[in-house]
Amino acid sequence: MKYRLLACGSALVMAAALSACSSSSDGADEAGGVTTVDVWLMRDSVSAAFQKEFVKGFEAQHPEIKVKVQIQEWDGIGQKITAALASNDAPDVIEAGNTQVAQFAESGGLLDLSDKKDELNGKDWLKGLAEPGSYKGKQYGIPYYAANRVVIYRTDLFEKAGIDAASITTREQWIAATTKLNKGGTQGIYLPGQLWYALGGFIWDEGGDFATESGGSWKGALDSPEALRGMEFYAQLQALGKGPKDSDEDDPPQAEVMAQGQVAQVISTPGGANVVMENNPELKGKLGFFPIPGKTAGTPGAVFTGGSDLVVPAAAGHPDEALTFIKELTGDAWQKKLAVAMSYVPNRTTLASSVAGDPGASAMAVGAANGHATPNTPGWAAVEAENPIKDYMTAVLTGRNAAEEAAKASADITRAMNAGS
Q1: What is the pLDDT of residues 295-354, one digit of tens each?
Q2: Given 70, 86, 105, 156, which residue has the most CB atoms within 10 angstroms?
Q3: CA dihedral defined by 285, 286, 292, 293, rounded to 10 degrees?
């Protein structure tokens, strides 16, 4: 996932460090009838105020359990979790990026929580969190919160052009509006050539995927007719602005580009609007949001669902108490509070109304109902590390043959995904 970019020593050294950091108070607490649950949460996934409120409320509701939260950094977290799972002193609950769960489950280091799905309202989980939280038919990750991309737009430029953003519910309408906006010194949309998460949405809308699995092996699928149609739409949209064809949203930072005042739309998480306003306070009150449009008015555009799942290590000392913690944090009351406090999408479709008062989060919630994840296999990490998708997109946008370049990229995806098998 790209919302948080995931440096440490060897796994052996890390495991030793983790063991050395165990709490000396746990034994005393347990002797007194109180069990301490060790929890790893990620930096900035919740505010300090929300964390304090939740822990206070949880401990009041469950006086037999004490919560000790350790905040972890996204940088190097994959290696740190791997080391913890291999140690004898793993925490009881770990927050993991939704696309990371498969690699941890593959090692055998996570508890299978499949039999807990019903009591955790699993039938209503967001697909983009639940699917990557499973591995080989078993559920290891419990959906925690989600975030996905929406369209951030300039309300004043839309009004000047006579466009009602609420009326844009299909791709065709989106292209028409963006074409109308793309005139004079204004870019209809700033869409960098390598925003591959957005491409994924267009491919999923067409019924395609980045890769498909058959008989236990994976094969790149960018050369399928569906994926090629998704790339064709991306190219059509990207041409209605001056986004670079050979870089992603971070080079240059697209929020900073929008802040310059000549961009009508970008595809971003809602938090990007805050960055725009920080760079240009004159745009305060001039930014709005709408879900990425789909092929038909009845279905929002497919989106990549970023976010986190909660997992329990197989070596956890207090698995029952860990489940109690997870049940509370992912339950109705705290999910609603978390969504409002952090502008997140709740973990279940039935809770989407809780962010109705937040324009950005409510637009995300609409899209999240059609959320997807990258191929659910540990081998996908190798694809992202190499990322032939970006090179493919640039090749097509600079005039190379789409089918030929898609076949090359698909072969690279196939090789990377199966390298360790």
Answers
A1: 999 999 999 988 999 999 999 999 999 999 999 999 999 999 999 888 898 999 999 899
A2: 105
A3: 120
Written as six digits, the tokens of 4 are 């948080």
Q: Contact at 8 Å (CB) between 364 and 147?
A: yes
3-state helix, strand, coil in the chain (%, to 5): 45, 15, 35
376-392 pLDDT per residue, tens: 888 888 898 899 999 99
Read off the pTM: 0.80
**Angle between helix 196-205 and 388-397 (nearest 10):** 80
Rounded CA separation 311/92 (Å): 8
For 79-99, letters b (16+ CB in 10 Å) and e give: bbbbbbbbbebbbbbbbbbbb
Name the 3-class secondary structure at 63.
coil
Q: Kindly state the tokens that stand for 171.
A: 């791709």
The token pair that represents 82 in the structure block: 């791997």
SS (H, E, C) 249-289: CECCEHHHHHHCCCECEEEECCHHHHHHHHHCHHHCCCEEE
Tokens 């997109």 belong to which residue?
393
| Number of Cβ atoms within 10 Å of the Cβ of 327 | 15
Residue 259 to residues 66, 195, 238, 280, 360, Cα–Cα distance (Å): 46, 19, 19, 5, 18
Q: What are phi and psi of 122, to 5 degrees?
A: -60, -25
Q: What angle do CA 272, 276, 277 make, to 5 degrees?
A: 120
